[in-house]
Amino acid sequence: MNKHSPIMLGGIFFSLAAGLMWGLVFVGPLMLPEYPAALHTFGRYLAFGVIALPLACMDRAELRRLSRADWLAALRLAAIGNVLYYLFLASAIQRAGGALPSMVIGTLPVVIAVSANVLNHQRDGRFPWHQLLPALVLILLGIACVHRVEWTALLQNPKASTTRYITGAMLAVGALVCWTWYPLKNADWLRAHPDRNPRVWATAQGLATLPLALLGYALFWLWLSLTDDALPMPWGPRPLAFVGLMMAIGLFASWLGTLCWNAASQRLPTALAGQLIVFESLAALAYTFMLRRQWPEPLTLAGVALLVMGVIAGLRVKPVKLGGA
Q1: Would 322 be classed as within a structural domain?
Q2: How many domains does the chain have?
Q3: Which conformational region is residue 296 in: left (phi greater than 0), alpha (psi within -120 to 50 degrees), or beta?
Q4: If you placed Cys at 21, which of 182, 194, 257, 284 could pair as Cys (CB 3.0 to 4.6 Å)?
Q5: Residue at 325 is within a domain
């Protein structure tokens, strides 16, 4: 067991780094609220694809090893785990604020752990439900505490739109479904190809995302033209801020965050890695309160503490191998 501990610690470090960078995507739509969610989405992944191009030149020998099936897998991951996920998430953030989507995505440790136990236990072994349950309960309690604070603040705001808030919640659930699917399928590919470099796979997903982002950007621009929308294209009313933010998110959240998560996925069991996605929600909450220039309420801090306790409890649960080969 001791010889595996450096690998486990490395996986935890990489998942923490990925969470810190992925948390940035929650504040992007709040920093530029005048930009539609579609522009945030296609702009982010256009930047991701552009960043991936010079990296692809450096890794062209490794990229040539990818088969047609590998590129199709990268395209599916890019379409659902990148473009569709962020389209849902950015729309949810602009309708419900940053906190509610953070909390909905914060259920990922629970949803992914349960999904991995039900669907993927044959690979890593099955996590005993009676040992996994306390960790999941702690995480859910932490999410509930933070959500209670945000919900109370919403009810006290006379300008709040209930319909818009509920729509945002539904879109956040759509993002949750996409982001539950992505790490499970991404881990499947990485674990099936242990000889492949996680950096190369992250670059391949960036290359697969580029044509999707270009097509989406062009179609959205065409739709604005047909509807006589006043939004100035191609870069909106604040071009320098928009391009700079998209490049920063494309580099850190999309490429480097994916690279770190790929490295973590190769080192950790799927259900365990799923619980560590809680770092993304914690980072998103921290960035949201920094943007608000507010200190979290005591109940919010208690919720964060419960989330961390749940992660620690989950780390102590070991999968039990099933009988057979």
Answers
A1: no
A2: 1
A3: beta
A4: 257
A5: no
pLDDT digits (tens, 9 = 90+) for 277-307: 778 888 888 898 888 888 888 998 898 888 7
Residue 249 within any structural domain of the chain: yes
From residue 106, how far is each of 194, 217, 265, 271, 282 by CA, in Å?
29, 29, 18, 15, 8
Provide the domain limits for residue 232: 2-315
Residue 324, in any domain of the structure: no
**One-letter identity of residue 73:** A
Say which amino acid occupies 180.
Answer: T
pLDDT tens column, 228-276: 888 898 898 999 999 999 999 988 887 788 788 888 877 887 667 767 7
Residue 129 in contact with residue 117, Cβ under 8 Å?
yes
Are the C-beta atoms of 132 and 143 separated by less than 8 Å? no
Q: What's at 108, amino acid-wise?
A: L
In the chain, helix, strand, coil percent, each to 5? 80, 0, 20
Give pTM, 2 decimals. 0.81
Could you identify the residue written with the tokens 């391949």? Answer: 204
For residue 100, the number of C-alpha atoms closer than 13 Å in the C-beta half-sphere is 24
User: How large is the C-alpha radius of gyration of the chain?
Assistant: 20
